[in-house]
From TrEMBL:
Cited PANTHER family: EXOCYST COMPLEX COMPONENT 6B, SEC15
Purpose: Component of the exocyst complex involved in the docking of exocytic vesicles with fusion sites on the plasma membrane.
Keyword tags: Coiled coil, Exocytosis, Transport
Membership in a protein family: Belongs to the SEC15 family.
Residues annotated as signal peptide: none
Entries under Gene3D superfamilies matching the protein: Dsl1p vesicle tethering complex, Tip20p subunit, domain D (1.20.58.670), Exocyst complex subunit Sec15 C-terminal domain, N-terminal subdomain (1.10.357.30)
Keyword Ribosomal protein applies: no
Domain Exocyst complex component EXOC6/Sec15 N-terminal: 52-221
Boundaries of every Exocyst complex subunit EXOC6/Sec15 C-terminal domain copy: 408-757
Pfam family, one: EXOC6_Sec15_N
Protein name as it appears in the record: Exocyst complex component
Coiled-coil features, chain-numbered ranges: 50-109
An annotated GO cellular component: exocyst
């Protein structure tokens, strides 16, 4: 037994090893199996291993047989159904083959007809294309024919316009045709032809005005002399009645001074015929004697052709040559008065023409060019007259009304006057800046009657309601109003003091004072006011006070008119009296202040909106509006309370502008790209803020609005929020585009943008968590609404 026990245990060990080996062969890699198999063959247990292997194979065969028996009936059924399908498929194939054969036989005639129709359509398309090409070519040919007719009739400027239309509009449409290429090649030649013809006309014009400059000057001086005589007669006889008696006196006076007019040719180009049939007939203006159309036409032509600089240089060069000829005195000029008269007439006629060209063309001649010629004329004229006493002849130049000085003394006085005026303007600019900088921009308080009368004495102001109020009380304007008004009067006094040494008539003094005062108002004071308005640290209260101040200064302009009339004794009804432009200055300043108020209000609103901190993923809204919006509304209420003294339209415009800007900013805040997701709770919180804005609009912060006019500024936000909160998509989609639509102001693009943000939130955070059972249906509804909105957007764009 002791000998058998080890043998049995060894056999059991071998059997267990064989089982492990088979298991490893089934589950392990090939390399491991190979090693195990070699170890079996190297030992003495090969037969036992084979028996175990056979047993394992039989076991697997039984399992395979069981599995096949289990699935065999399903396999047989599938094969049976497949055989049935093969039969039906063969029948279907035969039916399709028969149908195809019948269709081919029936469609032969249709194919023939279709081929004929194709040929007809091709011919029709070719005919239509030919007609279209001819219709494109006909306008080109018509324009070219029109161009040739205009060239033939010497209408060169219209011809140039026609040529430009032909080149840039018509020829590019048919540029591939041969005849069009010929036209294109001919266009530069036509332009050069137009330039040559227009230059020829200009040369004729220059030659004509050179010949007749003495007649032009004579007429201009005669007209200026009549005007001076008229001023003298009116100043001496202010109540003299009208018309013909004054005219006869003027004409008689002019005839004593200007005689022996030189004969002129009536057929020279550029000079119109002037007949003096009746001594009562008014003398025509110098510009009425000259036909400047050749200059304008040539200037336009050269400008269009891009050669304006060439034309300007040529014109100025030729006129300089003519100026030297005109300024060269004749050798026998000193012998007779007519020689002086003709000499001066030519000079005056030359500068009358140049002055007219300066004021009727842009850049052909400039003030520097005219001044250069005048300085040359003045020096040569003074040199020619230095050895002879010609006071009677120099008198003629004093009547010239074109702004050219007549001698060095008068030139010096005018220059000093202008320099003095500029000095005064610079001085008062500093005065105004100092007044505006030191002002407190608050209404002037008065505690007693003496102080009240003092302010009234400094500034013309009358208000019955203010007079009835008890002391202490306040003027509506600040201190700079009476100060500025008094400084304007001081400036007028300074101008009057200087004019006393110029030996001018009262009308000229009045005109000088008014012009200087206009410069003070429109340039100096206006610039100071604009600088104050545009300062960075200026507040809304200061801007409101500036508007009130400029309103009162504007009303005081008529008192300044009366003040000037009283010190110059020139009635405002005089024809040549210059009007003060103070009202325009103060209106512009007031408008600038109003615009600055609107801008500052919008900037303040933007600053408050920067404090907005919405939780776009909030599940539930809070019970009140956001703190930043409550503060913003409080700021707007306090601001508009200051606007009580402003004109109604200004306050209303500011309030409406602020509400519109607030509504627009809130809409942008809701739709900005950084807000990728939002919940219904966040939208309801946003709705509370919009309701706060609407409550502010309904409360009437500024009087004068009709009904809910101010509330309409938030109508876009209101309809958008109602649509989403009430989820009333059926009404919106059904009534979209109708005038009576409940959500008329809701843009489908805006709605889609907001819906996409809520859709993303619904997918991730379950916006509609309270409807979890219907969550899938709700998501389908959102997708459906989004699809319909896209359809609306696409149809609108189409």
């Amino acid at each position: 037994c002791r000998n058998l026990l080890p043998m049995y245990s060894q056999q059991c060990c071998f059997t267990a090893n064989h089982s492990k080996l088979l298991s490893r062969n089934c589950t392990s890699s090939s390399c491991c199996c190979l090693i195990e198999t070699v170890s079996v063959y190297d030992g003495e247990e090969h037969s036992r291993f084979m028996e175990k292997l056979e047993a394992r194979i039989r076991n697997h065969d039984r399992e395979i047989e069981k599995m096949c028996n289990f699935h065999y009936q399903g396999f047989v059924d599938s094969i049976t159904e497949l055989l049935k399908v093969r039969g039906e498929a063969q029948k279907l194939k035969n039916q399709v083959t028969d149908t195809n054969r019948k269709l081919q036989s029936e469609g032969k005639e249709l194919l023939v007809n279709m081929e004929e129709l194709k040929q007809c359509r091709l011919q029709q398309r070719n005919i239509s294309a030919t007609v279209d090409k001819l219709m494109l070519c006909l306008p080109v040919l018509e324009m070219y024919s029109k161009l040739r007719e205009q060239m033939k009739s010497k209408r060169h400027y219209p011809a140039l316009k026609t040529l430009e239309h032909l080149e840039h509009t018509y020829l590019p449409q048919v540029s591939h045709y041969r005849f069009c290429k010929i036209m294109v090649d001919n266009i530069p030649k036509l332009r050069e032809e137009i330039k040559d013809v227009s230059m020829s006309d200009l040369k004729d014009f220059l030659e004509s005005i050179r010949k007749h400059s003495d007649k032009i000057g004579e007429t201009a001086m005669k007209q200026a002399q009549q005007q001076r005589n008229l001023d003298n007669i009116v100043s001496q006889h202010p109540k003299l009645g009208g018309g013909k008696k004054i005219k006869r006196e003027i004409c008689a006076s002019a005839d004593l001074e200007i005689k022996n007019t030189s004969p002129m040719s009536d057929q020279d180009s550029g000079i119109l015929d002037v007949e003096e049939e009746d001594e009562e007939e008014e003398v025509p203006g110098a510009q009425d004697l000259v036909d400047f159309s050749p200059v304008y036409r040539c200037l336009h032509i050269y400008s269009v052709l891009g050669s304006r600089e060439t034309f300007e240089n040529y014109y100025r060069k030729q006129r300089r040559k003519q100026a030297r000829l005109v300024l060269q005195p004749p050798s026998n000029m000193h012998e007779t008065l007519d020689g002086y008269r003709k000499y001066f007439n030519q000079i005056v006629g030359f500068f009358v023409v140049e002055d007219h060209i300066l004021h009727t063309t842009q850049g052909l001649v400039n003030r520097a060019y005219i001044d250069e010629l005048w300085e040359m004329a003045l020096s040569k004229t003074i040199a020619a007259l230095r050895t002879h006493s010609v006071s009677n002849v120099i008198l003629f130049l004093a009547f010239l009304g074109y702004g050219f000085p007549v001698n060095q003394l008068f030139d010096m006085l005018l220059e000093v006057r202008d320099q003095y005026s500029e000095t005064l303007l610079k001085k008062w600019s500093g005065v105004f800046r100092n007044i505006l900088d030191l002002d407190n921009y608050s209404p002037i308080p008065v505690a007693n009657e003496d102080l009240y009368k003092k302010i009234i004495g400094q500034f013309p102001f009358h208000d019955v309601d203010l007079e009835k109020q008890p002391f202490p009380k306040k003027f509506p304007f600040s201190e700079f109003v009476p100060k500025v008004y008094n400084q304007i009067k001081e400036f007028i006094y300074a101008c009057l003091k200087f004019s006393e040494d110029l030996h001018l008539s009262s009308t000229e003094v009045d005109d000088m004072i008014r012009k200087s005062t206009n410069l003070l108002l429109t340039r100096t004071l206006s610039s100071c006011l604009q600088n104050v308005i545009k300062r960075r640290n200026v507040g809304l209260t200061e801007l409101v006070q500036i508007i009130i101040n400029t309103t009162h200064l504007e009303k005081s302009c008529r008192f300044l008119e009366e003040f000037i009339t009283n010190i110059t004794n020139v009635l405002p009804e005089t024809v040549h009296t210059t009007k003060l432009y103070g009202t325009t200055t103060f209106k512009d300043a007031r408008h600038a202040a109003e615009e600055e108020i609107y801008t500052n209000l919008n900037q303040k609103i933007d600053q408050f909106l920067q404090l907005a901190d919405y939780d776009w993923m909030a599940a539930e809204p809070s019970s009140k509006a956001s703190d930043y919006l409550v503060d913003l509304i409080a700021f707007l209420r306090s601001t508009f309370a200051v606007f009580t003294h402003l004109p109604g339209k200004v306050a209303q415009t500011a309030c409406m502008s602020a509400c519109k800007h607030l509504a627009t900013s809130l809409m942008q805040l809701l739709l900005e790209t950084e807000v990728r997701q939002l919940t219904l709770g966040a939208l309801q919180q946003f709705n509370l803020d919009v309701e706060e804005c609407e409550h502010f609009a309904r409360s009437g912060p500024v009087p004068g609005f009709l009904g809910d006019t101010l509330q309409l500024a938030f109508i876009d936000l209101r309809q958008l929020l109602d649509l989403f909160i009430q989820w009333d998509w059926s009404t919106y989609l059904a009534d979209y585009g109708q005038p009576s639509c409940k959500y008329l102001r809701v843009n489908p693009t805006t709605a889609l943008t907001l819906l996409e943000k809520m859709k993303d939130t619904s997918r991730k955070n379950n916006v509609f968590a309270q409807f979890r059972k219907n969550e899938r249906d709700k998501q389908k509804l959102i997708d459906t609404v989004a699809k319909q909105l896209r359809s609306l957007i696409n149809s609108h764009h189409l």
